[in-house]
Amino acid sequence: MRQFLFSKSGLAMLGFLAVGGYFLWTEHQAHTIAALPWLLIGGCLVMHLFMHGGHGGNGGHGGGADDGSGDDDPESDSRRAP
User: Fold this and answer.
1) Which residues contact 65 (CB under 8 A, 6 or more apart)?
2) Which residue, among 60, 62, 58, has the nearest Cα to 71 in the 3D structure?
3) DSSP 52
């Protein structure tokens, strides 16, 4: 493979690919840049789904039963007076 890339035919092919890639980028740059915000939003949505595991029966965010009282450890509760 390396011998082909450095032959006359391989170098000509690399040159045509470089020119074609340049023109492809310059002609479609506006479309690509216009799609970036939508790709960012879509990526956030997909990452949210995968990071939460689909909100299945895994105990929620805290991993245990949440009774709404906050931290279960009374020693670390900063709201109580000493």
Assistant:
1) 59
2) 62
3) H
Supply the DSSP symbol for 74.
G
DSSP 5-51: HTSHHHHHHHHHHHHHHHHHHHHHHHHHHHHHHHHHHHHHHHHHHHH
Q: Which amino acid is at 70?
A: G
What is the rounded distance in angstroms from the CA atom of residue 64 to the CA atom of residue 44?
26
From first to last of the 82 residues of the chain, give the pLDDT tens digit: 778 888 999 999 999 999 999 999 899 988 888 898 999 999 999 998 888 765 555 555 555 555 555 555 555 555 555 5
